[in-house]
Write a structure and sequence with these properties.
This is Two-component system response regulator. The chain is of the alpha/beta class and 143 residues long. 43% of the residues lie in helices and 19% in strands. The protein contains five helices and five strands; from the N terminus they run E-H-E-H-E-H-E-H-E-H.
């Protein structure tokens, strides 16, 4: 985490089944000023528990998981009334997947291959707004 001690960091939880990709995401996102990676999971059940336990502000998730799917996780988070901002970062980026994720409650959707930097920029913007306001950022959604 690169956040000043006087500011509350944006708590980010990663849900990705491929360990090297998850490690890359953790390194890249954890280097953003004001971001703290508070947990990681590779399956939906562990993710739900971890998101709740860590009180994550943002959940970055893939659609393909070792057990369950990202869409199932989005539905579960919506049912639980989780205040976490949900960001889908996946290689499955066809319009069908985008629409299914939006219907399931995703607030942002990015193609892992072509929009990784855009996803990082979005998290940077959310983190800066979070730190500046001292509360959850609920700005415009990119889907």
């Amino acid at each position: 985490m690169n956040s000043s001690p006087s500011l509350q960091a944006l708590r980010v939880f990663l849900v990705e089944d491929t360990i090297p990709i998850r490690q890359r995401m953790a390194a890249r996102l954890g280097a953003i000023d004001g971001v703290e990676i508070v947990g990681e999971a590779e399956e939906a059940g562990a993710a739900l528990t971890g998101i709740d336990t860590t009180r994550a502000d943002v959940v970055v998730l893939d659609l393909r998981l070792t057990v369950g799917t990202g869409i199932e996780l989005l539905v579960s988070l919506a049912k639980s009334m989780s205040p976490a901002i949900t960001i889908v970062l996946t290689n499955h980026s066809s319009m069908w997947f985008r629409q299914a994720c939006v219907a399931a409650g995703a607030q942002y959707f990015f193609d892992k291959t072509s929009e990784f930097d855009l996803a990082c920029d979005t998290i940077t913007r959310i983190a800066h707004a979070h730190c500046a306001r001292g509360l959850n950022y609920t700005g415009a959604h990119h889907v």
